[in-house]
Amino acid sequence: MKGKRVLTGRYFMMGNVSCAEGAIAAGCEFAAGYPITPATEVANQLAERLPQVGGTFLQMEDEISSIAAVIGASWTGKKSMTVTSGPGISLMLENIGFAIGVETPCVIVNVQRGAPTTGMPTVGVQGDMVQARRGSHGDYEIIALCPSSAQEMFDHTVIAFNYAEKYRTPVFILSDAFVGHMREEVVIPEAEKIKTVYRKIPDEGTDPQTIKGFLDEDVAPMPIFGRGFKAHVTSSCHDEYGKRNLIDISALDNFVRKLSNKILKHKDEITLVERDYEGAEIVLVSYGAVARAAAMAASIAREEGISVGTLRLITVWPFPGEEIEKMARKAKHVIVMENNLGQIYPYIKAEAAHFAEVSYLPPRMVGEIQSPEDILRKIREVLN
Amino acid sequence: MVQSILRAIDELGMDLDDFVFVSGIGCAAWIPSPFFNADVLHTTHGRPIAFALGVKMGLPHKKVMVASGDGDLVAIGGNHLIQNARRNIEMVVICINNGIYGMTGGQAAPTTPMGVKTTTTPYGTFENAFEDISGLVAAAGASFVARWTTIHPRQMTNSIKRAIEKKGFSFIEVFSQCPVQFGRKSGLSNAIQMMEDYRERSISVKEAAKLSKDELRNRIVVGELVDIEKPEMVEEIEKMKKKASGGTE
Question: What is the CATH code of the structural domain delimited by B2-244?
Fold first, then answer.
């Protein structure tokens, strides 16, 4: 297997290992991280496999330097990533904002664990959902994907790299200890069947003075280092050329809006959902590991003759509000389920409540996915 | 400092395109950014060395130079400084040490001497100061360490040249006057007075070796403090990759 970037084949594989293989298949060449449960298997696999294909994994002194090194490497043109859990993301947030501000492609895998604070490391929760969206200071947009199987840890990591490169932005994989530690069948396709995207860069020899390398809603070419582009990269408010401007608030407005619009303008292409609610009276909305329970409950309910459908969010950020509205217009009842006390629920409710009754089914215990029985009980409850 | 860096690059017959410059936050971080017409990464406070590590990983054949201040590199970013000195990754780190937070209006830094009144220590600092940053970096494992002051521009240029050519982590500490903030707070009211003070307090490594610790109190030991050969991380990574991919070392 040494030297093979894509390990084509069928495996019984752990989600975290599958994630690392997805990254390498997507063309990742540099990863940096700091040990943390329940994300360590991703780092371990990257440390073993990246050098085999000419890449490097570095164990850093903390998560702050991990994301910093990832951003530095990305500016040299290397596809780069880091992997951690909630406490690590908390430390990374300032530099995640930096990556957004200077439009740096990179992938950040968060294998979420029991929180807040040091919490309970081996238990999966979906507690960092809004942190990914709003954790760093200021207005910004982010892309986040929520895998719900070991297979999707591979598939979504490939998509995350493609989105990162295409939109020049950090992309989150919001997994959790359940999905990360789950072992199940993973099929790795042949290399040529895996679609990979690389960032646009200016043509060689372009006059550096003419390069508009920033703030284009259709994504500016990235003036990566080492090619004579004389890139001036600053996270302070800057213009399309990267030139700093700290005195004119119209420059700040341009800076904030262009960065956000770059993601929002392409929301349709970024949004991935799984719809299975045609004609359903009740729709269960969920994501990640919880979606597995939702699918099971819906299937039992249908067997009992109750009209239940599902909507699974794969892209959670940018928030697919249009998809929620489309669903809610046809449904009578919407039941939202997450493995937390209701983080995405307010966003869903805001879009759906005009058209349907919206309620939340929390897990019986935070860290314990809703059982199909509990979901069925809730379904019967909303019907009465 | 700008002059010393540019002269060193010029005298080595190198071009700005041979470099990627990385800086943090603070007055000294403005040395390369935006003034150098080169690839420049102006990063978050305290983290330039960590960003620079990533840049070096991606461009092992380019020179990576960090220029920043004592607050950035030694206070908030202290761990990245010692960890990368330990790694002995090839890069040049220039630390402009003015003993104060200048940009934010003269707050006490870990390098501010005991007793000095600053904006955040109106009754005088009550903490022991970092008196020997260079010694810290040397102890952490850097290949090359030099210390100069702003009255030693020529010596500094020579040390920067050696640092650029060194296969390893090179650290240059520069005592630099901040008459606006440090000067006003410490009673040394102008730049000339502060530079005169540096001249009086400076003592060469060679001369310092003859004096006791007590005699060296309040002196600035200048010169090249460390210049050794040891395994460098980029080269070690290349060896590791060969091993991992089935090739021979």
Answer: 3.40.50.970
B79 CB neighbours in chain A (<8 A) are 61-62, 65
Cβ contact, residue pair B54, A95, below 8 Å:
no
Question: Could you tell me if A53 lies within 8 Å of chain B, comparing CB atoms?
Answer: yes
- Tokens at residue B237, please? 């990574």
- E strands within chain A? 9-14, 30-33, 56-59, 80-84, 106-112, 143-145, 170-176, 183-188, 232-234, 273-276, 282-286, 308-313, 315-317, 333-337, 357-361
What superfamily would CATH give domain A9-193? Answer: Thiamin diphosphate (ThDP)-binding fold, Pyr/PP domains (3.40.50.970)
With contacts defined as CB-CB under 8 Å, which chain A residues touch B83? 60-61, 65
Q: With CB atoms and an 8 Å threshold, state whether B51 touches A235.
A: no
Instruction: State the ipTM, two decimals.
Output: 0.96
Which two tokens mark A113?
A: 């664990």
d(CA A157, CA B201): 58
d(CA A174, CA A316) in angstroms, rounded, equals 9
CATH architecture, domain defined by A274-383: 3-Layer(aba) Sandwich (3.40)
pLDDT digits (tens, 9 = 90+) for B27-73: 888 899 888 999 999 999 999 999 999 999 999 999 999 999 999 99
Domain boundaries, chain B: 2-244
- Quote the mean pLDDT of chain A: 97
Ordered DSSP codes for A320-341: -HHHHHHHHHH-SEEEEE-SSS
DSSP letter (8 states) at residue A238: B
pLDDT bracket for residue B248 (50, 70, 90): low
Interchain contact, A52 vs B53, CB within 8 Å: no
Strands (E), chain B: 19-23, 39-42, 63-69, 91-97, 100-101, 107-108, 144-149, 169-175, 202-204, 220-227
Torsion of CA B115, B117, B120, B125, to 10 degrees: 0
Contact criterion met (CB below 8 Å) for A164 and A170: yes
CB A62, CB A34: distance < 8 Å: yes
Q: At what angle do helices A15-25 and A150-167 cross, to 10 degrees?
A: 30
Q: Where in chain A is the domain with CATH 3.40.50.920?
A: 274-383
Mean pLDDT (whole number) for A159-164: 98
Q: Which residues of A touch B37 (CB under 8 A)?
A: 208, 230
The owner of tokens 């929002």 is A264
What's the mean pLDDT in B212-216? 93
